[in-house]
Amino acid sequence: MTEIVLYNTMARAKQAFIPADPRRVTLYVCGPTVYNYAHIGNARPVVAFDVLFRLLRARYGAEHIVHARNFTDIDDKIIARARETGEPIQELTRRFADIYRADMAALGNLPPDFEPRATDHVSGMLTLIEGLVAKGHAYATPSGVWFSVASMPDYGKLSGRTLADLLHGARVEAMDDKNDPADFSLWKAAKPGEPFWDSPWGPGRPGWHIECSAMIEAILGRTIDLHAGGHDLIFPHHENEIAQSECAHDAPLARFWLHNGFLTMDSEKMSKSQGNVALIHDLLADWPGEVLRFALLSGHYRAPLDFTTGLLEQAKATLDRLYGALERADAAAGAAPGTGDFAPSPEIWAALADDLNSPEALAGLSGLAASLNKARIPAEITEIAGQLRASGEMMGLLGADPAHWFRAKAGDGDSDAIEALVAARTAARAARNWAEADRLRDQLNAAGVEVLDGAGGSSWRRR
RNA sequence: GGCCAUGUGGCGGAGUGGUGACGCAGCGGUCUGCAAAACCGCGUACCCCGGUUCAAUUCCGGGCGUGGCCUCCA
After folding, report:
1. How large is the angle between the packed helices A309-333 and A289-297, nearest 10 degrees?
2. In this structure, are A139 and A253 located in the same domain?
3. CATH number reported for the structural domain that contains residue A82 in this entry
4. Total structural domains in chain A?
5. How far is the CA of A70 from the C1' of B51 (A)?
6. Nearest nucleotide (CA of A230 to C1')
7. ipTM value
8. Closest Cα to residue A287, out of A265, A261, A306, A314?
């Protein structure tokens, strides 16, 4: 089994991944703030690190991996949205958390073992903050509690920033009542009308970063194996998590830091402020979730990826080819699909183990499909098809029944109508009435249905 | 300005000190009543300028281009 190598942002290099305890490998991925629909860019870390999750499960055993992904369910934007719409915060966040889960499931992601919500961990945050204040790393002011960046000698080690860099770029105006412009908020005193929790510093709510520190400690432990998220989280979010957790515990927060690159839309950053976002919810109306997933995996997770319609069309075409090979294999082997214990191909395993090289792994899938299309011996067909499915599963792909893949969108009645036309065409062909047969095929094509004539008769698929 | 990435054929996108990525699209062929699907074959790709080397797309230096981060955006 090939060793897993991952690019560790902290080291700025690929490193062999060896868990602290192979019987309990811990993975934390920063999750969403739930106040609206997730866009496809939000899905990139989820898909990329779902592949990592699958790889770890395969390597160490599913029962030995603990994967947590949080929901941020209290923050300024949530409060603002609730004010706008009048929907209570709890309902709003619960509703969008459910939508998020459904979207991620549609993209073929396994659910994490834990999905903690920030508001369930406020007491843990308070304990953490109290400890930081006691150790001189934080101080209270009327506006809340602040982390004192100057109290941590190696602050900035993840993002490669020095305190001087930060001050250089910092706003000149003294914000709030903190001592240093680089200090960040651990606890915010409640303003009138805002939701609040009681604390030693009066009613208030947590700062953004502290929730992850508290949830990681509560669920996974003080030092975890892997901490992952979007590239933009390196600074300030992950930097500040490190500051809080490490100053509180005198232990490293995570052994590996993984960050995915951004999606662009027509080469521009996809962001809410620019209004160029594609919501997963909307994309799913036009594309199977697996096409979206394949498109996201077609680039390496650390590289930028331009998310375009062309990319989706290519992903769809490639998946059609892969599923086509599986469909013929199932028919030829006459066996139930997905049976038996097949292992992923060594090449695909190696590609994924090399810092989640999904494009190379996808190339491996195509290679297997080509072999499958050429295979003639039933035992060989079963073997390769099994290997192809097992390899696909490593990436959360090819899990569908090919028949479903090609014909799912048709309603039952719709399907019957298509079957009738195909049957009529078969009859016309038997009568060597080519004109009628071609007319029926044109009619089917116009309806988005492709007819495939084979030795054993004609079949059809949706385009 | 500081920091971090990145520049590969029509398009997407891996990788490598010296013959092939892979996919999509395209072209030719086999098959087919004709197609489609599948199979076989085809493309003289590595931003620019120096340097190292027998040999650089791959290493080093410089330049140019692009993207991202620089206090709450995956």
Report:
1. 110
2. yes
3. 3.40.50.620
4. 3
5. 51
6. B74
7. 0.93
8. A314
A379 and A449 assigned to the same domain: no
Q: Would you place residue A306 in the very low, low, confident or very high pLDDT band (cuts 50, 70, 90)?
A: confident
**Averaged pLDDT of chain A:** 90
Q: Which of A202-211, A260-269, A407-416 has the highest mean pLDDT?
A: A202-211
Q: Residue A334: which of A456, A422, A452, A451 has the closest Cα?
A: A456
Q: Are residues A221 and A365 in the same domain?
A: no
Task: Give the CA-to-C1' distance from A343 to B43 in angstroms.
Answer: 35
Strands A204-206 and A224-230: unpaired
Per-residue pLDDT at A274: 60
Residue A363: CB less than 7 A from any atom in strand B: yes
Phi and psi at A329, nearest 5°, equal: -65, -45
Whether the pLDDT of residue A199 is over 80: the answer is yes
A440 and A374 within one domain: no
Nucleotides of strand B within 7 Å of the protein's CB atoms = 1-6, 11-15, 21-25, 32-40, 66-74
The answer to whether the beta carbon of residue A286 comes closer than 7 angstroms to any atom of strand B is no
**A251 has a pLDDT exceeding 80:** yes
How far: A371 CA to B14 C1' (Å)?
A: 20
Residue A214 contacts residue A202 (beta carbons within 8 Å): no
| CB of A166 within 7 Å of some strand B atom | yes
How far apart CA A54 and CA A358 sit, in angstroms, is: 13
Per-residue pLDDT band at A168 (split at 50, 70, 90): low
**What DSSP line would sit under A259-327, residue for residue?**
EE--EEETTEE--GGGT---BHHHHHHHS-HHHHHHHHHTS-TTS-EE--HHHHHHHHHHHHHHHHHHH
Strand B contact at CB of residue A454, distance < 7 A: yes
- For A386-402, the pLDDT digits (tens) are 999 999 999 999 999 99
Handedness of CA A114, A120, A124, A126 (dihedral sign): positive
Considering all nucleic acid strands, name the nucleotide whose C1' atom is nearest to the C-alpha of residue A76. B72
